Amino acid sequence: MILRYLILCLLLVPQLEAQNNPEWTANHQPFRIVGNLYYVGSNDLASYLIATPEGLILINSNLQSSVPQIRHNVEALGFHFNDVKILLISHAHRDHDAGSASIKQLTGAKYEVMDADVPVVESGGKADFFYGGRSLSYTPAKVDRTLHDGDEVKLGGSILTAHLTPGHTKGCTTWTMRITEASRTYNVVIIGSTGINPGYKLLGDPKYPQMSADYARTFRTLKSLPCDIFLGAHGSYFALNEKFAQIRQGSANPFVDPQGYASFVEDHEQAYRRELAKQTATKH
Q1: Domain parsing of the chain, residue ranges
Q2: Residue 8: is it exposed, middle or buried by C-beta count within 10 angstroms (0-12/13-18/19+)?
Q3: Which homologous superfamily does the CATH classification assign to the domain defined by 2-283?
Q4: Which of 25, 154, 192, 240 is the most buried (most CB within 10 A)?
Q5: Is 18 strand, coil or helix?
Q6: Residue 105, number of CB atoms within 10 A of its CB
């Protein structure tokens, strides 16, 4: 029955997904990042698994067509996909949350989403301030728990904290957790997104009038977070493929990269300031 459902999901995926960046759909070998944290996504659409004695936490369902891939990667690591108890996302864009309805149906996972992104996921993208009218909708998914800035998600001794880092979406979420391995405790940061998509109006968007202020808030928040392990919603944020190659060569864990995190935040804040200055000048 489950196999039949997965086949139907693949057949019903919108033709739009055929136009995706091929790195979004090319599978990446699943692997352990540190402690009980694993990578189970594609070459660029990141999906993370936290394994606990009480079940699994999955961050990001990615595209509707990504679900069989994520399931394969979870099971390749020796886990059972139906042990996913909690489903989280980085933000409500289809490349990170369109597979959520399928994963909920297959696993019965509890879906927990930041408050400002709830209307978007429950409408299948139609309530998005920018993409809602652009034929980028997907299967809606019911949210089981509405999160707020600073809320914790707990399962089997693992604790994740949800940090509201808005701008890219109104409820964009950066996840943090602490993981101990070999007597060292690491601060893990999984950045939601800081990107300013083409067409975004930082100033004067009636559907998102506080967008510029929200981006500024996000950079303040990110700069305040202690980071040892630098991760994000896209593999390209943290040089996934390059760092994975280093692991295969036997290098020390390259995902321990506090300087890379600081540089990413600084570079993206400067990009935001340049875009803000450009849009401000255009308005005058």
Answers
A1: 2-283
A2: exposed
A3: Ribonuclease Z/Hydroxyacylglutathione hydrolase-like (3.60.15.10)
A4: 192
A5: helix
A6: 15
For residue 126, give the nearest of 135, 117, 114, 113 by alpha carbon.
Answer: 135
Q: Which helix (H) or strand (E) holds 106?
A: helix 100-107
Q: How far apart are CA 31 and CA 208, in angstroms?
A: 38
Instruction: Decide: 172 and 90 in contact? Cβ < 8 Å.
Output: yes
Instruction: Provide the phi-psi class of 122: left if phi over 0, else alpha when psi is between -120 and 50, else beta.
Output: alpha
Q: 135-147 pLDDT, tens per residue?
A: 678 999 999 999 9
| Cα–Cα distance, 177 to 188 (Å, whole number) | 5
On average, the pLDDT of the chain sits at 93
Is-contact 142 156, C-beta < 8 A? no
Q: In 10 A of CB 53, how many CB atoms? A: 9
> Across the strands, what pairs with 146?
113
